[in-house]
Amino acid sequence: MEIHPKALSLLEKVGEKGKVEVDSIPGKSHGEIIRPAKWLEENGLLTITEEKLKENFLTEKGFKAFENGLPEEILLKQIKDDAKALKEVQKEVEAFNIALGQAKKNGWADIVEESGKKKLKITKKGVKKLKEGFKENKALRKVKEGEKPGEKVLESLIKRGLVDIEEKTDKTLEITKKGKKLLKKYEKGELTSKIGKLTGEQIRNGDWKERGFRKYDVEIVPEPKRPGKKQPYRQYLDRVRDKFTSMGFREAKTPYVETEFWNFDALFQAQDHPAREIHDKFELKNPEYGDLEHTDIVERVKEMHEKGGDIPSKGWNYEWSRKKASQLMLRSQTTATTIRYLAQKTQTPDKVFAIDRNFRYDEIDKTHFIEFYQAEGIVKAENLSLKNLFGYLEVFGKEIAGAEKIRFRPNYFPFTEPSVELDAYHPQIGWIELGGAGLFRPEVRNPLGVDEPVIAWGMGIDRIAMFKLDKDDIRELVFPQDLETIKKTRAVRLR
């Protein structure tokens, strides 16, 4: 019988003791042991037996309770000498609500009113409980040491989330009579293992002449390898980044939390304009406001909103609020990222892009979600026109989205003029809006000190990816549930 060196090595290890647990074999992964073990079992040289076991283990909360004591125990220790105000005890006990619930349920503590304040007072029953101790502490120690506590207390610990159960399968390998006979033949030198990989030493000493070579079945289909890889949509985003950089763009990055100044005001969106309402933004509660840097730019934006600055513009003709502009929010458009870079007075010509997440409240359906990726970009150069913008948009629609048909529609955006909308045709859904674009208005460029024309766009890259990955539901694109489909998906390529 021809036997692989790895299988022979395993058979020898099992043969030393007759029976071995897989987990006790050192220096090998589970897969490295099971593969040759199954071959040996198929050839009657050893047997594999499985035993399903349930193991208890402490959760994170369980470890805390083991080290510091149960929440109700900590609570009772806080009030054992004297009644304390509820708020005071609450500060000292991490899981206060759980502790109070246990103490009240078991009659270990009462809430009393003294001098107009609600206080927590230990009862006689509570004092007695502290003296005799908590059986749960002993049970937690047993679980930690690999022992099993009583069923009733164990069930209580599991319900409280202090202990959890892990199911595992123990595999045991046992050598058969046939396996023992085969090992004896190898020990006597009656059999030698065939060579699988020829070494220089074997060529020099002529060992290969006696042992011969293992046979390989070149027609057998091996099990497919499933190496780690990115989720298909993440792959796609990386390919889009590669496309932008190959076109000479630099990538921009800014934090998710943004001030309304960079998200709206710097884009000449009036603080009381309905255009802000359609963004359905998420505002921060704590902290509510942020600092506005670039004081000179802030002042020029203020002048532009109120009076039109120093260009032939009337602005929005209202009293601009610095407090409103400093309101913190989750970024609702990646234009906030590219406008920040434009404010840095970069070289001319210049091309910048951003692919990042944005957040807006929305009704969730096939084409809408509360967080979404945008592919944003700006090009700053002399003599740019709408025709240049159409050229870039065609690349997005056809090469990046893979759409056969695209169309442009006029639209309104507070920060571009003229403004256009890019649509692409999806075979299953029909026409889908991919994003908006246009030339930045002088009211946007002037406060930033930019004189050259700037073309800008913001594309819903989620929807573009739906074309390329043949998806008709944005939820399945961003949060796919079918792992088998993900495993089989090939690497994403653009045109």
Pick out its properties.
23 helices, Arc Repressor Mutant, subunit A, flat, alpha+beta, 495 residues, 15 strands, 3 domains, 7-stranded mixed beta sheet
Overview of the molecule:
The strands form 4 sheets. The chain has a 7-stranded mixed β-sheet, sandwiched between helices. Strands 1-6-2 form a 3-stranded antiparallel β-sheet, sandwiched between helices. It contains 23 helices and 15 strands. With 495 residues, it is α+β, with helices and mostly antiparallel strands. The longest helix has 15 residues, at 232-246. Strand 4 (109-114) and strand 5 form a beta hairpin. The mean pLDDT is 85. It has 3 domains: 5-53 and 168-211, Winged helix-like DNA-binding domain superfamily/Winged helix DNA-binding domain (Arc Repressor Mutant, subunit A); 60-164, Arc Repressor Mutant, subunit A, CATH 1.10.10; 234-488, BirA Bifunctional Protein, domain 2, CATH 3.30.930. It is flat. Helix 1 (5-17) crosses helix 2 and helix 4 (71-79) crosses helix 6.
Summarize the structure.
By secondary structure, the chain is α+β, with helices and mostly antiparallel strands. Helix content is about 40%, strand content about 20%.
Question: What's the arrangement of secondary structure elements?
Answer:
Blueprint: H1 5-17, E1 19-21, H2 30-42, E2 46-58, H3 60-68, H4 71-79, E3 84-85, H5 86-92, H6 96-105, E4 109-114, E5 117-122, H7 124-132, H8 135-144, H9 151-159, E6 163-175, H10 177-188, H11 200-205, H12 207-211, H13 232-246, E7 250-251, E8 257-259, H14 260-263, H15 274-277, H16 295-307, H17 322-325, E9 328-330, H18 335-342, E10 350-359, E11 371-380, H19 386-400, E12 406-410, E13 416-426, E14 430-440, H20 442-445, E15 454-460, H21 461-468, H22 474-478, H23 483-488
Parallel strand pairs: 7-10
Antiparallel strand pairs: 1-6, 2-6, 3-5, 4-5, 8-9, 10-11, 11-15, 12-13, 13-14, 14-15
Helix pairs in contact: 1-2, 4-6
